[in-house]
Amino acid sequence: MLRKTSGSALCYACGKLNRVDAPACFYCGKRNPGLWGFGPLLGRVVGRLEFARLVTVACLAAYVAALLLDPAAALRPRGPFDLLAPSGTALMTLGMTGAFALESGRWWTLFTAIYLHGSLLHIVFNLLWIRELAPAVEALYGRARVVLVFTAGGVAGFLVSNWAGIGATIGASGAVFGLLGAMVSYGRHRGGLFGMAVFRQYWQWSLVLFVMGFLMPGVNNLAHAGGFLGGYLTALAVGYGERRPESAAHRIAALIALLVTLASFVLALWSALGP
Question: CATH second-level architecture of 50-273?
Fold first, then answer.
């Protein structure tokens, strides 16, 4: 059933129980707290998402698509860091970002480039960290908020590097640093023995990965720094589960982020292949 017309539902703003058809929330006063009966459906849809798996599938699909767009270029003999590297033309078609994106108004590349990768080693490294970090952030913040942190980290990282003049860039590493920023934020603000243990562990991981970025070729460290800051600030804004239960407002924002990402890929393909 798509729409619930009777019974109760959680308010999208404060997360407290109201009648699904109430004109205003009894507790916080927000209008239509049951979202005209569609609030429970939205909660079920977002609640079923396992975000780490969703990102893994999206990244792999985009990587395979980039290889298939120019297989001859991808199969050229190269070094280990460039093994099975998609061509620049293929990556541009799918939504690579860079300084040109700001100059030409291609805002959608801030979203699409998160899911694009430049080699086999690149995608494996990022997906391993996503599988490590996303479930931890999800456990502390909730399924909808991990979507927001990941997306905001990736977009913020590219905004910083694009503004600084990085010519062309792709990859989920800025979003990975956004997840690290969320964990550091949680540990710092929760406090106590557990909070400090979380803070030390994820802060150390952040520093190690950031330093490693200077030792490996072609790494966009500006995107890492911007992603960390974006994830940290987003985590502060949305709050974590122990202090602020996940609400329908978080789920709506997460759904919008996913829809904007999907629309961005459509725009990238339309821009590259259209008339």
Answer: Up-down Bundle (1.20)
